[in-house]
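Entry for the shared binder. Reason: the reviewer on the internal report wants the predicted structure included alongside the sequence.
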Amino acid sequence: MSAIEACRTEALGGHVAACTKCGHSHIGYNSCKNRHCPKCQGPAARDWMAARAEDLLPVEYFHVVFTLPAEIAQIAFWNKKAVYGLLFRASAETVMTIAADPKRLGARIGMTSVLHTWGSALTHHPHIHMIVPGGGLSPGGTRWVACKPGFFLHVRVLSRLFRRLFLDGLLALHRAGDLAFYGELERLAQANAFAAWLAPFRKVEWVVYAKPPFGGPKAVLAYLGQYTHRVAISNHRLVSADAETVSFRWKDYRVKSGNRQKVMRLATHEFIRRFLMHVLPDGFHRIRHYGLLAGATRKAAIARIRDLLGQRQPEPEARETTEPALHTLREPCPCCGAPMRIVEIFRRGQKPLSRAPPREQAA
């Protein structure tokens, strides 16, 4: 919260930028770069997408979502690092196992998984968004195995394997003493009580669904930018805020028809409590790659797939190495569109010598 409060204020220092043509100048304050800050995620998403653009393949891409039952989500809230990690592993293993089955796809696949922990009303709702290319390499790596047009894998088959893998993993965490319980569920610290409590979840359907394929690689990239660096609530959803209440737009998915958009008003302290529920443990990665897209083998796997698909390797982008570029802002002058150059840098606690007005920032 301290990082978000200080973001793009004089507390973090900044720079003075001047237009190279019309003389316009303004002060830009430094960003906190905290991954939970709504103001910092736009630039971070653009940089991440630019790095991922060279990995895109000329195939269909699918969006698969894995969701936990609400009761188990409560266990996840108390044990974020352990259970969120299990959610990543179980969902990835599910898709790779079913895809490798000769009766299904019979291929080694890759995927990018993104963890979201919130619902539209800022409630705790952990789920995985998975972006998967529609196919994979044959076991020997000699050919590309494409899925059926418009269809990836049966979601019911995915759901049942995911349910088993996750529940088995949760029991393993319990046996290892990696789970904590509080309040009415404190009794679940006992092995027998926990096993009995989990038993009904093996018989109900878990929510796994696949959305229609994207309309090409560019659509995938745009979609990834919306999901990879999203935080619990973005600036554009805020309607009003004061010392007593915060109002924001949310989607009511229970409404089957008509306008789902509504405005929710929460006491300020309750809004802050809901926002902080979604702060991840230190060092926890919310974006992970698996299979063909994981680790050091990713570049070689992508190159092999491109060869099999007859696609030319993308040319590396030329990078500007001249000294002036290091002092030129990405955004042009708001008055005339010419480049903006940094003419002064000031550190934390310092004030700029120039008297340029502060640049307007999003709230």
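Summary line for the report: The first helix runs from residue 2 to 6.
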